[in-house]
């Protein structure tokens, strides 16, 4: 278990409990040691509850970025069957930061698309830390076109710090690719639902999340820029990221009030990283509920619903 900065007291308690249990396994005062370990477990559970009871925006940002949170590939493996990955944008190449393909959700055919960050150093480099290049967005466009052609609902799983800002990406039309991907989301005549499972960063996230229904995990974030980037621009000091996180209104709770998202998915105590299977199951239930809401709508009605949602977003948020 990787502990975040604010979880250090918790790490100490849980570490001591594990040390005591290691002693018990060696037969060193097993009964008394187990009692002490159980007392530490209760203390750590209380502390965990207190820590996560009211996380501030910066701490939520840290939790959203936790390396042990389930990734797109974990959700696809657990929630979808008959997943057939599709690769390439038919123009330049394949972008491993974006994964997607045909699958079945609750035994119904669909198209699933998402950002993949990777689980270790090697895979994170392979997936470019979830930062898509133009070919990633063009691959998503291709898959959405295919879903539209065959009448398949599209499910997107968003987890990216933002689009890749490298020179090559800019030379190949990064901003144009993001804009066209966003436009494609608005055009397709099939249900489109999106879940922010970790970070929803900038246009790189919006290009996948311009959906009929948008949900966020309880401790995920969704913002126009990262707190560090915002702090660097506004205050010329990246260390002011805590202030930036507060100002950006990037938490699921803030965005639900502003009507930017439709639903908040509860996470297990301590975040999705502590009970991945439970978090994945909750996401699956929410996806099913969002698709049910859209069932029976005709293509033109789905497009109208999606466009109306985004055109009214600011006014609805202010009215709320």
From TrEMBL:
<keyword id="KW-0275">Fatty acid biosynthesis</keyword>
<keyword id="KW-0444">Lipid biosynthesis</keyword>
<protein>
    <recommendedName>
        <fullName>Acetyl-coenzyme A carboxylase carboxyl transferase subunit alpha</fullName>
        <ecNumber>2.1.3.15</ecNumber>
    </recommendedName>
</protein>
<comment type="pathway">
    <text>Lipid metabolism; malonyl-CoA biosynthesis; malonyl-CoA from acetyl-CoA: step 1/1.</text>
</comment>
<feature type="domain" description="CoA carboxyltransferase C-terminal">
    <location>
        <begin position="39"/>
        <end position="293"/>
    </location>
</feature>
<keyword id="KW-0067">ATP-binding</keyword>
<comment type="function">
    <text>Component of the acetyl coenzyme A carboxylase (ACC) complex. First, biotin carboxylase catalyzes the carboxylation of biotin on its carrier protein (BCCP) and then the CO(2) group is transferred by the carboxyltransferase to acetyl-CoA to form malonyl-CoA.</text>
</comment>
<keyword id="KW-0443">Lipid metabolism</keyword>
<dbReference type="InterPro" id="IPR011763">
    <property type="entry name" value="COA_CT_C"/>
</dbReference>
<dbReference type="InterPro" id="IPR029045">
    <property type="entry name" value="ClpP/crotonase-like_dom_sf"/>
</dbReference>
<comment type="subunit">
    <text>Acetyl-CoA carboxylase is a heterohexamer composed of biotin carboxyl carrier protein (AccB), biotin carboxylase (AccC) and two subunits each of ACCase subunit alpha (AccA) and ACCase subunit beta (AccD).</text>
</comment>
<dbReference type="GO" id="GO:0003989">
    <property type="term" value="F:acetyl-CoA carboxylase activity"/>
</dbReference>
<keyword id="KW-0547">Nucleotide-binding</keyword>
<keyword id="KW-0276">Fatty acid metabolism</keyword>
<comment type="similarity">
    <text>Belongs to the AccA family.</text>
</comment>
<keyword id="KW-0963">Cytoplasm</keyword>
<keyword id="KW-0436">Ligase</keyword>
<keyword id="KW-0808">Transferase</keyword>
<dbReference type="InterPro" id="IPR001095">
    <property type="entry name" value="Acetyl_CoA_COase_a_su"/>
</dbReference>
<dbReference type="Pfam" id="PF03255">
    <property type="entry name" value="ACCA"/>
</dbReference>
